Each structure stands twice: as C-alpha cells, then as structure tokens.
Amino acid sequence: MSRRFGKRKEEDEYASEGDNPPKKASRTDDSDDADGIVVCENRRVSVRSFQGKIMVDIREFYVKDGKQMPGRKGISLSMDQWNVLRDHADEIDELVANS
User: Fold this and answer.
1) Distance (Å, rounded) from C-alpha 14 to C-alpha 8?
2) Are the C-beta atoms of residues 77 and 86 closer than 8 Å to each other?
3) What's the Cα-to-Cα distance from 95 to each of 16, 87, 89, 91, rounded to whole Å?
4) 91 phi and psi, to 5 degrees?
5) In this predicted model, what pLDDT tens digit does every residue of 52-67 receive, in sequence order?
6) Are 44 and 59 spatial neighbours (Cβ–Cβ below 8 Å)?
7) Cα separation, 95 vs 53, whole angstroms
8) Which residues touch 36 (CB under 8 Å, ≥6 apart)?
9) Using an 8 Å Cβ cutoff, are 60 and 43 in contact?
10) Which of 2, 48, 55, 90 is the most exposed place for a label (fewest CB within 10 A)?
11) What is the Cα–Cα distance from 59 to 81, expressed in whole angstroms?
12) Tens place of pLDDT per residue across the chain (99 aa)
C-alpha cells in the first residue's frame, strides 16, 4: 500500500510529526575584519573555500542592526579566474590611466 500523504521514513529522518528538519544557520559577520580585507567602506575581499575549491570573493557589504552583512553585489573568482585577472592587472591599470 502506498502512502500518498506524509513523509517516508527512509527518505527523511524527521518523518514523525514531532521532529523537524534541521534548520540552516544563517551566516552573519560578527566582526569587521574577520573574513577579509576591507578595500573600501563597504567592499571587502576575502578568500574562501566553497565545495572544496578556493575562491577569491569581492563583495559589497551593508550594515543591518549594527552588523556588517554581505550583500548580493559581488563576484567569486576561482583560482584560475583570479590568476588571469591578476596577470592582466598592469594592462588594466594602463587602460584606466589612458581613460
């Protein structure tokens, strides 16, 4: 007999009514310089590990309830992408100077 309603025990360990699924912890930033280098007032560069890969994260931050929080505006570069950008820094500086 199939059960159309409710959760199956083998798929979800929290199948009984009283148990709840594990909650995701929200990530907050409790200190100003804990996660990276502050480049501007509200921009920060940090190096993180994501799914086993090292990423260079350049992100805008905002203040909420007196705490610095990461915003949606930003970019995470893989090490290959970071190396390409770093290798072209002189060319980028030259273009900026000529603009």
Assistant:
1) 9
2) no
3) 63, 14, 10, 6
4) -65, -40
5) 999 999 999 999 999 9
6) yes
7) 31
8) 44, 45, 46, 47, 57
9) yes
10) 2
11) 16
12) 555 555 554 544 444 445 555 554 444 444 444 567 888 888 999 999 989 999 999 999 999 999 989 999 999 999 999 999 999 999 999 999 999
Q: How many CA atoms lie within 13 A of 63 on its CB side?
A: 5
Map tokens 């594990």 to a residue. 22
Residue indicated by tokens 């199956």: 8
| Number of alpha carbons in the 13 Å side-chain half-sphere of residue 94 | 4
pLDDT at 30: 40
- Decide if 36 contacts 29 (C-beta within 8 A): no
